[in-house]
Please model this.
Amino acid sequence: MPEHDVLVIGAGLAGQRAALSAAQAGASVGIISKVHPVRSHSNAAQGGINAALNPEDSWESHAYDTVKGSDYLGDQDAIEIMCREAPEELLHLEHMGVTFHRNDEGLLGTRAFGGASAARTYYVADITGQAILHVLYEQLMKHAEVHRYEEWFTTGLALDETGHCAGAITRDMRDGSMELFAAKSVILATGGNGQCFNPTTNALICTGDGIAQAYRVGAPVMDMEMIQYHPTTLAGNGLLITEGARGEGAHLYNAQGERFMEKYAPNKMELASRDVVSRAEQTEINEGRGFPDGTVALDITVVPRKRIHEALREIVNVGRDFAGVDITKEPIHIKPGNHYIMGGIKTDVDGQTEVPGLYAAGECACVSVHGGNRLGANSLLDTLVFGRRSGAHAAERARSMVLNPPSAALLAEEERQIGDLISREPGQARRVSELKAELGATMDKHCAVFREEAGLKEALETVQRLKEEYEGVAIDDHGSVFNQDLIGAIELGYMLDCAEVTMISAIHRTESRGAHFRTDYPERNDEEWLKHINVTRDAEGKPHISYSPVTITQWQPEERKY
Amino acid sequence: MAEYTLRIRRYEPEKGLPPYWQDYKVDLEGHRSVLDGILQAKDREDGSIGIRCSCQAAICGSCGVRVNGQAKLACNTKLRDALKRADDGAIVVEPMGNMPVLKDLIVNMDAVHWKKVQRVVPWLLPEGPPPEREYVVPKESMIDVTQSMACIHCGACNSDCLSLEVDPLFIGPAALAKAYRFVGDPRDGQTEERLRDLAEDAHGIYDCTHCFSCIEVCPKGVAPMDQIMRLRRKAVHDYGINDQNNGARHEGAFTKIIRKKGTLDERKLLQDSLGPLRPQGGLALLKALPTGLRGFARGKITPKTALLHERLPGIENVQRIYDHAEEHRTELNLYIVGEGGEQDEQEPAMAETPEASATTNGGQP
Model:
């Protein structure tokens, strides 16, 4: 049984940062990832990372923008911590070797981003997430004392007899062997669950594993109704066009050639926060002013060609390879598309969940710094600041305790269940891929930019029916080596749990706030709803709703205009 | 919708059988990718097909495979383009080369790719403690190394590297491109040590044979061979490293002969590359004697060419090429000049601006 003080699950930015900080604090660390760490979806963060580093800027301004962006659902104590610690974290990355863009003086240069009152987004062309992810992996290669378990899949968390998280049950994907890990603390850093939706900007691996695993062992999940639709994704395949394009000056037009953001956000225009821009686009499309393919146009040609090559090269590639458009010469058709979940496993500012010994950081966690709507370039910051804090806290906790390995019976039971699934004969059940396709289409239809009760309830019924069907699914691959068929089936189970909780929360919140816009309740209602929705799984496995207050430190809710 | 046939090389290690080919018919529009096709086959017909994949947007680097014999990302290879290169109507998909196959299209990247990356000390080694704020470095130097940072480690270059095929110990294009990311980074304090290490390694920068395969197959425009050439130029010109592999001497001899004669005088190349006045050079030359004699026997070398290698007519044009190349010694990367080196019509070409070439040249603040 592999034993570690701190076991990190997931090796994107949050996971790698947590592993490095726990190791630096002297803990023995293992990091498990179902893909090679550099394949993690943090790669896809293009635009940059926010930090109030310039002397003219202030962390208070960054925090206020974040609070306002969150539609006042973000917890202000956590937001203050994130924005205060941002400059130090940014400089730490720079010192480790991230090749951040420089200005003409050779200092760190910035670009503008949505919902921000100052240009405080630091970047590496439009591959910021990739650049940071690869530099963190350089550090993991350097610090060989951090034990890497690459292409190991986690099938569940292991609690000890006192209900503390004491490890995880895993499968080595290369040979199919199952292993029980023992750890004093476990940090979940498994990312989001965008695959519940189709289309989505999220990679195939974003299946909500950690969120569902934590939920299954009794940890509350929070703000799960808060799903971000990014304003600029390609129709059809859902690929992302960075907000950096608008940060560099690109405009949005409807099919009548109107720069429609004038109507919705006269001050910030295209750089209003994402929920506002997505709603504006969807309104234009719904009211018949979009293009026949259900899109509006993003015109990047206003950005000088030289600047496009230097700062938006990946978007040139995406346009050429995936849309057949030369973005330096013509507008590209885009629409709002599923992108990010603000909600997740409820944690405190040190990443602790309500299950002792279990931490969460990054997109799978909900601290909550994003509240109802995340600002662009705050997600990288969230992963790094709270990844580091989780790692440090988990290492500190480990110092004062002895390892209490979980019972081997957990492993035996998991092996039995997986063995059943692998050898199950296909009966009447539909294929995993069919269930997944129906889930994705249902979520995108009813739980997108605009929502209303009837649609949400219909979607919940569909999800619950899919959960029943899921019980009987069979797979084609009966082997041990890289049985991706098996992994796909387990992931679908995670996705269904996440989707169910999202639908329940979305039905429950009868107001409009941030990304959650109810056409049947179009106003924000602070009196009733300035609070988080928490969902816990009860003893019978049924979802149970409770509330927690929003922490307000210095910014009282006010009307939100851009 | 059109129907495409994917011919996938299957290998299931547990069955104890050799690899075999299996055809799958998929129904997709031509602009959809080979990966979309494979995923459709998995979804509808056979979930046991093994392929790593994740982002479907050419950024995660998971789905490197060979399509019709050439390394590609399955996710950014369109079905209709792949069909054009297919021999008998079937798009052939097989695992990448130069790496052991684990299952179907999944190769062991650790055994080759990552091992080689680890070889080049792939982390920044700054001199002394970090500054209070950021390191102050020229803007262009960061843009310059961003081309190497754009590498997604898909393994396509290693798969199709011809040198790696004959010398499995070659550090290879991906790891050397990664090495340039540190050598070109002004914050790194070990530039000379790194260059010396890579030049003196018998399987290092001089093991590249200039075949351009890596440039052709790289899906991200990293141009690994260009990065290798940058490493060589820095090693020889900026640090005067005269390596034990005769790499620097060979390159010097080659360029000198062409400049003078316009075509290659192979007898002189051998002689100058090895350096006959050095004891080990003389010995190497003696060892090379049979090769020379074979050249005579096959008429490749005649007494006339051996003694009097003639100049090419119009040699002054060759010399003009040299003059131009020396004036613009450093290539500017894609992040500066764009795909195909296109320039903004209204703006002067970047390559002409002195500050750009100056800063990408040395990279030192």
About this structure: The two ends of chain B are 56 Å apart (CA to CA). Chain B has two domains: 2-107, 110-244+346-362. The longest strand of chain B covers residues 2-10. Residues 145 and 181 of chain B are 5 Å apart (CA to CA).
